[in-house]
Amino acid sequence: MNLSSLNQDRLRTLSLLDRGPLANWIGGESVAPVGGRYSPVRDPAIELVVAEVADSDAADVALAVAAAQRAFQSAEWAGLRPADRERMLCRLADLIEAHGDELAALETLETGKPLSIARAIDVDAGAEHVRYMAGWATKIEGSTLASSIGGPPGVAYQTSTWREPVGVVAAIVPWNFPLAIALWKVAPALTCGCTVVLKPAQETPLTALRLAELAQLAGLPAGVLNVVTGGPAAGAALVAHTGVRKISFTGSTAVGRSIGHSALDRMARFSLELGGKSPLIILDDMDPWRAAQGAAMGIFFNQGQVCTAGSRVYVQRRHYGAVVEALGTLAGQMKLGSGFDPETQIGPLISARHLQRVQAHVAQACEEGAQLVAGGQRGRDSGFFMQPTVFANTHAGMHIVREEVFGPVVCVMPFDTVDEAVSLANASDYGLAASVWSNDLSLVHRVVPRLQAGIVWVNTHNMLDNNLPFGGVKQSGYGRDLGRSAIEQFTELKSVCIAY
Ligand code: NAD
């Protein structure tokens, strides 16, 4: 390990961390939590506390929502032209990139993920997403409609639709891609003219706090982007607050479901990006080694803590043995370590609790008769590391095949016919993503429409594009992030009828 580069990367995080306990960001300034409570943030690679942040409750949430409501109605924000919002968001994207080293280091510090992933996904792709969304500000449109209203002689009617910002948005995000997923919500919301209260996961609040400061530097008026840190209590208070008109949530299915119920009680808008148990289908025209490499990326990327992780791999019988063996080899070769070590491919899981959860899934799979091909153990004595793990001889009746593990654990199963592969892939409560691996174009075209998933990849997995809507069917969610769909999520349609 190159210690000098490791220390330098850690030092980059100090501009935020040498300030002592970190308060919320409300109305353009740091605001200490009303209850005076702070909670620790740990570096999961070394298990040590690296920061303390506000452990907020309903009183803090009320302050943040009030600030967002004031900003929503203020001339400084509501009076801006779309082109002004576009320019501000482009400035924010530039600032995210300019502070990319610091943000990536903070992300690696709080999540443990390899620095290269933090930089590429959370920072660079995050900034690109802000830029993409900024472009929409000047392209939001309604329609002029043909009207059939019959009126008294001499009276005509003009009917049209307008798109207006939905109001104050609560953005509640998880810990796996903290900055990127926060930006998926913040950028389109601001583009549409909404104001935001962002609640990061309690494990990963640091980049969100820095983002709010950068937003101010970019010229966003005070109160347009607020950050309230804390756990489920802060999130629940935000969801329940009557001043919040839209909740944009990414996280577990259980929490998403309760948010949906609570939002519906007061008719707040909501969109939910939830869990997954995504299948990869490898057809027998594929080279098994290449397919195994794709499957390894599909499951082990970001320690398997990816909602679209390809955790169920179905291989046509001819190549089943070869793919199992290759995946086992690839898993065994992956280098575990600190995300600050440039050679690291697998960092720690997010927390001790999550490591225990993943280990319990693995133990249960072994008890139910799954064959352990690789991994299965804790990765290191200290830090929350888990070995990349491959199971064979699994079947649809097993918990490990049905439940989301959200870790580097994959089940590999054989199939004989394409019909069988489709029905195995669809035999899941979830429906976030799926991928098909084959060069037989006509077969691919027959399989894609039959897969119950919000996104289907062919010969790739986990590939996102800012223009391509992202979200799930079945228990994987409600609504779509990214693309034009995101703009629709943060606007209300107003119908206007003018008699003349
Ligand atoms: P989680 O649901 O426990 O927490 C997500 C966020 O919700 C956190 O900020 C948390 O503090 C908050 N929260 C928790 N309870 C709440 C409540 N009752 N009311 C309001 N907010 C509450 O999820 P997690 O463990 O942080 O993340 C892992 C899960 O997220 C996995 O299931 C994964 O599949 C899912 N995920 C989905 C996507 C997607 O786009 N579909 C992306 C990433 C992660």
Nutshell version of this structure?
By secondary structure, the protein is an alpha/beta fold. It is built from 18 helices and 22 strands. Helix 5 packs antiparallel against helix 7 and helix 6 packs across helix 7.
Shape: globular
Task: Please compute the radius of gyration using only Cα atoms.
Answer: 24 Å
Strand content: 15-25%
Mean pLDDT over the residues: 96
Report the helical percentage: 40-55%
Strand-helix topology:
Elements: H1 3-11, H2 14-17, E1 24-26, E2 29-31, E3 38-43, E4 48-54, H3 58-73, H4 75-78, H5 82-98, H6 100-111, H7 115-136, E5 144-145, E6 157-165, E7 168-172, H8 178-191, E8 195-199, H9 206-217, E9 225-227, H10 232-240, E10 246-250, H11 253-265, E11 269-273, E12 278-282, H12 288-300, E13 310-316, H13 317-333, H14 352-367, E14 371-374, E15 389-392, H15 399-402, E16 409-415, H16 418-426, E17 430-431, E18 433-437, H17 441-447, E19 455-458, E20 473-474, E21 477-478, H18 483-489, E22 491-499
Parallel strand pairs: 7-8, 7-10, 8-9, 10-11, 12-13, 12-18, 13-16, 15-16, 18-19
Antiparallel strand pairs: 1-2, 3-4, 5-6, 6-22, 11-21, 14-15, 17-20
Bound molecules: nicotinamide-adenine-dinucleotide.
Q: Can you characterise this structure?
A:
The protein is α/β, with parallel strands linked by helices and 500 residues long. It contains 18 helices and 22 strands. The strands form 6 sheets. A 7-stranded mixed sheet has the order 14-15-16-13-12-18-19, with helices on both faces. A 6-stranded mixed sheet has the order 9-8-7-10-11-21, sandwiched between helices. It has a 3-stranded antiparallel sheet with strand order 5-6-22. Helix 9 links the parallel strand 8 and strand 9. Helix 5 packs antiparallel against helix 7. The N and C termini lie far apart (76 Å). 55% of the residues are buried. The N terminus is likely disordered. The structure holds nicotinamide-adenine-dinucleotide. The site of nicotinamide-adenine-dinucleotide has 29 residues, from helix 10 and helix 11.
